[in-house]
Specification:
9 strands, 30 helices, Neurolysin, domain 3, five-stranded mixed sheet, alpha+beta, two-stranded antiparallel sheet
Length: 722
């Protein structure tokens, strides 16, 4: 017995020594981690004013974001534990201003996951998204915090708040109610678990598309160059260059290269067009179809727990101009008969032309033929080809034209800077940086990221490395804004020997995204929680600015032949204007069906969506309800429809058409008064560009236009109505 007891004491002593050793080791590691964290440039608020990307690496983000979460959590605790009577300043304002480090680091990180993705980011993206989602749930379900906000809300009429202060209070209060602050403990846990799973699934969806874009392609051998007959030589050169980049010979057609879609429009090889159409249809199908159904079911379940009939009702209530799924659907369905009628007439004409050109009276027009014969009909009717336009749209000329239009409209100037750090080291010099000035004062920085690459998501977008942020004194009085850093990202093909010549659609895209950027420089919400515009309002500045790309008044000023530098001929400008309503039935119908599919998915109740066993079963049912067949390529497939799955347009894709209604209604005022009329542009700047979510957007629009918008101008613009 004594011997065993002696061994036990030895064992205990050993365990104590081991425990102490582990504690010391963990303490040492914690100290080292803290030192590393404190030394990180991402911890310095000054870093975000002018980021030096050479100082940071992928290993820094997670630790700093975790520290940002820790800081925000502490700031929330301070609000809750404050013994003073809840007030606008110590509760609402304090909540709005919390989490600066987290916001700065997250904006930077998530921009890079789209524009310069790395394996290191992939490893932590889901973890970061999950932790941030959990923090938001924690804040929304903090009973002590909500009770203090409610105290302030209940006495709002006696507080003499300014318009923006009242908007902030009401926005925060309604967000807490809408997201379940009044739920039971059990239901709150259910929503938290759903949110966590949705983060995981939507992140996976996005990563799957990016991986597939980089790894899946069609390779044509050198001997198959004839299959590219009709395609512009600079586009063919880009396919060859992409093949060489992967160590292959021939011509590589991938999702990444936007010029591949040109084959559907100008490529003479019908079988290749069919192959490409099928190639695009199946993008993401194998990896994402199951994810889509799981995401939709979880969204419906969450909405049901929160007391909404569907995800769409949850999303749109209090967060959109439309206000409800019915209002959004009503707009789309009011336009649909016009666009479908126009498209059906166009189809008859296209098939007639195809039969003539192919000398085949039985030629059956398929969807992969649509763009090709549309282009042939355009050439026949208006006597010009897209290649006739591209020579006037050298990238640098278009950029300068965009800058000049913005200067004349709003007074912003763009000064080229070569001393601003780049987030991606591009040997093609694919990123330019500019200081943005207004009346001689610096108001921000602009990055233009031009060319497609494997670590960049497809498409074009405008976003912030650092959003416009307000500074306040100790009493909460607004002092000034910190300048934003905006990024506009494209996926143009890398330069050929002739430089980069853009298509007309590329030019419109340039104007569109710069419209977003200009909006970001002018917003004046004061409070951080009011910086996000409604999705059906945010596209107004960008879609409106597209009109300057093709205006007969402005087009000759910036469209210069890349060799002769002569302005585009007036006869060609007229042809462009005459063709603006050409084939609009197809384009508008496609946009309408994208919006309707989004609402179709997200307007289902939990019970309704549980009836579907797969994404395909929903799509089949959806097509029957709309009276469509699957051969139209505007019939969407959610497995590749990232807008409604992973980029925040769920239930809000209709917003593009809603914004179109606003745009055409607004542009009629510009057109009748002069597209550079200073009174109109100043009113648009003051009543639209500054707003964000600082006031009701419909009220803001009425101040600009003098009335509510109507759909009539949109129907006229599309050629559907006189």
């Amino acid at each position: 017995m004594k011997f065993r007891h002696k061994l036990t004491m030895v064992g205990i002593t050993f365990l104590v020594i081991v425990a102490v050793g582990i504690f010391v080791l963990e303490r040492k590691e914690a100290v080292e981690k803290q030192k590393k964290l404190e030394a990180s440039p991402l911890m310095n608020p000054e870093f975000y004013k002018n980021p030096d990307f050479s100082l940071i690496d992928d290993s820094m983000y997670l630790d700093v974001i975790e520290e940002g979460i820790k800081q925000k959590r502490k700031q929330i605790e301070d609000i809750v534990n404050n013994k003073e009577e809840p007030s606008f300043i110590n509760t609402v304002f304090a909540l709005d201003q919390s989490g600066k480090l987290l916001q700065d680091t997250a904006e930077l990180f998530f921009h890079l996951t789209y524009a310069a993705f790395t394996p290191g980011m992939e490893e932590v993206e889901e973890t970061i998204s999950t932790k941030m989602s959990e923090l938001e749930d924690e804040i929304m379900y903090n009973e002590g915090l909500f009770s203090k906000i409610k105290v302030v809300y209940d006495k709002k009429d006696s507080l003499n708040l300014s318009g923006k202060e009242l908007r902030l209070l009401e926005t925060l209060y309604e967000a807490f109610i809408k997201n379940g602050s009044l739920l039971s403990v059990e239901d709150k846990k259910k929503v938290k678990d759903i949110n966590k799973e949705l983060v995981r699934l939507t992140t996976k969806f996005s990563q799957n598309l990016l991986k597939e874009s980089a790894s899946v392609y069609i390779l044509l051998e050198e001997s198959e160059k004839d299959r590219l007959k009709g395609v512009a030589e600079d586009d063919i050169a880009s396919f060859k260059k992409e093949a060489q980049a992967k160590g292959k010979s021939g011509y590589l057609l991938s999702y990444i290269n936007p010029r591949v879609r040109e084959i559907l429009r100008v490529g003479e090889d019908r079988e290749l067009r069919k192959t490409l159409w099928e190639f695009y249809q199946k993008q993401g199908r194998d990896l994402n179809s199951d994810l889509v159904l799981s995401i939709m079911k979880l969204r419906a379940k969450k909405a049901n727990i929160l007391g909404f009939s569907s995800h769409s009702e949850y999303v749109l209530k209090g967060n959109s101009m439309a206000g409800s799924p019915k209002e959004a659907r009503d707009l789309l369905e009011s336009i649909l008969p016009y666009s479908m009628s126009s498209m059906k007439k166009d189809r008859v004409e296209l098939e007639k032309l195809a039969r003539k050109l192919e000398s085949d009276p039985g030629f059956d027009l398929q969807i992969w033929d649509w763009a090709y014969y549309t282009e042939k009909l355009r050439e026949e009717r208006f006597n010009y080809k897209d290649s006739d336009l591209k020579v006037y749209f050298k990238l640098s000329s278009v950029r300068d034209g965009v800058f000049e239009a913005i200067k004349r409209l709003y007074g912003l100037e763009f000064i080229k800077r070569d001393d601003i750090s780049l987030y991606y080291d591009d040997s093609n010099h694919g990123i330019d940086t500019y200081e943005v000035r207004s009346d001689g004062e610096s108001v921000g920085v602009l990055y233009l990221d031009y060319y497609a690459r494997a670590n960049k998501k497809a498409g074009a977008w405008s976003t912030s490395i650092r959003s416009k942020q307000a500074e306040f004194d100790e009493s909460g009085k607004f002092l000034r804004y910190q300048n934003p850093i905006e990024v506009v990202v494209f996926n143009f093909p890398a330069p050929s020997n002739e430089g980069v010549l853009l298509s007309l659609r590329d030019v419109e895209t340039f104007f569109h995204e710069m419209g977003h950027a200009v909006n970001a420089f002018f917003i004046d919400p004061v409070y951080a929680s009011l910086t996000e515009s409604y999705r059906d309002f945010v596209e107004l500045p960008s879609q409106l600015f597209e009109h300057w790309a093709t205006s007969s008044e402005y087009l000759p000023e910036y469209a210069k032949h890349y060799k002769t530098h002569k302005s585009i001929d007036s006869s060609l400008v007229k042809k462009i204007q005459d063709s603006m309503i050409f084939d609009r039935g197809y384009f508008v119908s496609r946009q309408l069906f994208l919006g309707l599919e989004d609402l179709g998915w997200h307007s289902l109740s939990e019970h309704e969506i549980n009836k579907y066993e797969s994404e395909a079963s929903f799509e089949e049912d959806y097509l029957k309800k709309l009276g469509l067949t699957s051969e139209y390529d505007f019939v969407p497939r959610a497995h590749r429809f990232s807008h409604i799955i992973s980029t925040g347009y769920d239930s809000r894709y209709y917003g593009y058409m809603w914004s179109d209604m606003l745009v055409e209604d607004a542009y009629e005022l510009f057109r009748t008064q002069g597209i550079f009329n200073q009174k109109v542009s100043s009113s648009f700047r003051d009543n639209i560009l500054t707003v964000a979510n600082s006031q009701d957007p419909m009220s803001a629009y009425e101040k600009f236009r003098g009335r509510r918008p109507t759909v009539d101008a949109l129907l006229r613009k599309e050629g559907f109505k006189k």
